[in-house]
Amino acid sequence: MKNLFYKLSPFKKLNPLEKLSLFEKVYGLKKRLVNIVLLFLLFVGVSGLAGLNAQPNLLTLKQAVQSAIEYDPWLIANKHQQDSLESMSVASGTLPDPKVSLGIANIAAETFDFDQEMMTQFKVGISQKMPRGDSLNIKKQQLKLLSSEYPFQRENRKAQMAVMAGQLWLDVYKAQQSISLIEKDRALFEQLADIAQASYASAIGKTRQQDIIRAQLELTRLDDRLTMLKQQKETNLQKLSEWLNESFVNSYSIENENTPITDTITDAMTDSNSQAGKQFLMVDETLPNIKMLKKDLYLSEKSLQSNLLYKYFASHPMVLAVEQRIKASDSGVKLAKQSYKPEWGFNASYGYRADDVLDRERADLFSFGVSFDIPLFTGNKQDKQVQSAISKSAAVKTKKWMTVRKLIASFETARVQLVRLTERQVLYQTRLLPQMHDQAEASLTAYTNDDGDFSEVIRSRIAELNTAIDLLGINVERQKTIVQLNYFFMAEYEQIIASPKMADSKIRATHKLENNNE
């Protein structure tokens, strides 16, 4: 800067004081410029941070599934039902309470004098019934078996919730990304409309008035399409919010079951108010890559044998729950067979007698007895009870095979869908979408060289946009189908939506736990 000033001829004519004053003005201007730049950068940085803080909460697929399971009241209710049966099993395995009787026997009706008659006595008795055979223990085991069904029900419920929440999340993602694609291409359609307007106004080229109207019409249709997609996105978000909403959790959570109802309602209102500011407006913009737990089975071109699928589905929580119910029904048959055995009863009593009128002591009395019933008429009672229990057990066993057949049919339906979606995905990615893009570029090039129709440019661009949205829909539907297929083969609900790396680690941990148990 100093050398520059010396090279200027007017600068050489200045005296030292004038030169110093000029230097101070120049450097002062430079410092002010630096300060302005620093203030501008600081403003941009603060605005950027404010923009980051103002961004809506992004909801990931994992967060959606975990929240849906964490806030599910069905799981809490199921746990209470299990606790109820376990408590009832203990009560059912206990002998009935003994009965105590108090009374005055054989007192004179005319005088009600306790020491008048020899047989007048104050009587205390106790009796105890003994249930038939081993019915107490069998009833206890039956209720325990019924209660052991509930953990499998909860595992199945968690898996179903993972599928439901995952598919809803993917529906939101599809609508959100479709909106992004349309908004991205809308700017291009606006430019095409401006070009058509300018070409028509200048009377240069082949642009007609109907081309301008067509461009405006397509923009209007895009706006309508955006509105429809926003409606779909918001609708699915509201459906998902049913399972993401933590309101009233304190009203039914196990940890607060002993809390007074007034405190519970207050906590629920507080939770509801705090949740209002935590609504998710957007989901993660990256489509998750969900691992196929049984890729060979999923992508098989042929229908799989039922016996092969049964080997996998036999360990599914839904089937295991029915297995526990079958064991409980078998115990019901054993319990019914106990009705052929007699029910015993024991009683004992002590009778106190007062001294006679001459003060002579009278002996007290002690009684002891046994009672039992005799199953004589078994044809219309015990036999029918056993037959009823056997039929009930057979019905439960039939339900098992109904469940297995339902799982097999659902799997085959999803497998066929995945195979065809994969074929369409390859077709769109390798041929259809590139061809649509080439067609759109060729139409635009022909139009700019006055060798094409503006309507064809619009049609080709719309077709390319539709193809891109269709490919997005195929990718999303493919992930939804993988989620559904993983439901049939999962060991833990986390595997349903896990990425390949996470799913492999979960499978290794499960195998290690099984080996340790063996």
Structure description:
The protein has 518 residues and is α+β, with helices and mostly antiparallel strands. The chain has two domains: 2-54, no CATH class; 58-517, Up-down Bundle (Outer membrane efflux proteins (OEP)), CATH 1.20.1600.10. 69% of the residues lie in helices and 7% in strands. The chain is elongated and about 145 Å long.
Give average pLDDT, whole number.
79
Number of strands: 6
How many angstroms separate the termini? 84 Å
CATH homologous superfamily grouping of the largest domain: Outer membrane efflux proteins (OEP)
Helical residue percent band: 55-70%
Radius of gyration: 42 Å
Determine the CATH topology of the largest domain: Outer membrane efflux proteins (OEP)
At CATH level 2, the architecture of the largest domain is Up-down Bundle
Count the domains.
2
- SSE order, one letter for each helix or strand: HHHEHHEEHHHHHEHHHEEHHH
Compact summary:
69% of the residues lie in helices and 7% in strands. The chain contains 16 helices and 6 strands.
Provide keyphrases for this structure.
four-stranded antiparallel sheet; 2 domains; alpha+beta; Outer membrane efflux proteins (OEP); 6 strands; two-stranded parallel ribbon; disordered N terminus; 518 residues
SSE inventory with pairings:
Elements: H1 2-7, H2 9-12, H3 16-54, E1 58-59, H4 61-70, H5 73-92, E2 99-105, E3 121-130, H6 135-147, H7 149-202, H8 209-244, H9 249-252, H10 261-275, E4 282-283, H11 295-298, H12 306-313, H13 317-337, E5 344-352, E6 365-372, H14 382-448, H15 454-489, H16 500-517
Parallel strand pairs: 1-4
Antiparallel strand pairs: 2-3, 3-5, 5-6
Helix pairs in contact: 4-7, 4-8, 5-6, 5-7, 6-13, 7-8, 7-13, 7-15, 8-15, 13-14, 14-15
